[in-house]
Here is the input.
Amino acid sequence: MSCLHDLKGLLPASMLDWPGKLCSVLFLGGCNFRCPYCHNPELVEGGGGEGALQWEDVAAFLEQRRGWIDGVSITGGEPTLHADLPLLCLRIRKMGFAVKLDTNGSRPRMLRLLLEKGLVDFVAMDLKTSLERYPSLVRRPVDTGSIVESVEAILSSGVEHEFRCTVVPGCVDLDDLQSLARLIEGSSGLVLQQFRPQNTLDPMFAEVRPYPDGVLRQWAEELSHTVPTRTRGLLGMGPAEREERQATPLRG
Here is the structure.
């Protein structure tokens, strides 16, 4: 897969996607997981073609934002599926922007390459649930050893990072989170993301009631004994704090 031909959307500016930075968010198509609660189902299949943006247009857009945004967050889909992801990162960095990568951690070789070449400045890795529950949740064959390898690659790289988990009832409970906390012990921390039953890949998950905010806060406090833990996107937050991260048409 070529990400330069599968650029699916661009969010002009986000103050929440990259802690402490104002960034644009570039969405790539294609994912090797089928998490039923995915809130970007239109990006799962990928495939380029209709709806794909041209790199030249994206580059022109970013050029106009030079000196205004700090960097570009590359998300998906799953960016590490694309063989030319290093080239995309290099082009963005040559424009003077820092690069953040969102990943599910399933492609540790690509992740290590990006880290070793210094092509990413921040990595956000999604942890779905405890390792033993991965296959049933992502609904695809998965080598959980690759997930562990990606965690180790991030921790050993020294790059800024965060590990995050969308806490979906029926998919993730406190036992799962405690297992994940032990897996990433010594990291910068774990972010518990509130589940929002909207625009889900599996329509049945639009009927799932999220955990109450208080439960996530309590769990974060308990998990902090193992690894620093905080919450994100709680239902009680205002619209500006929640900020929708959806692919949008390219606009100058």
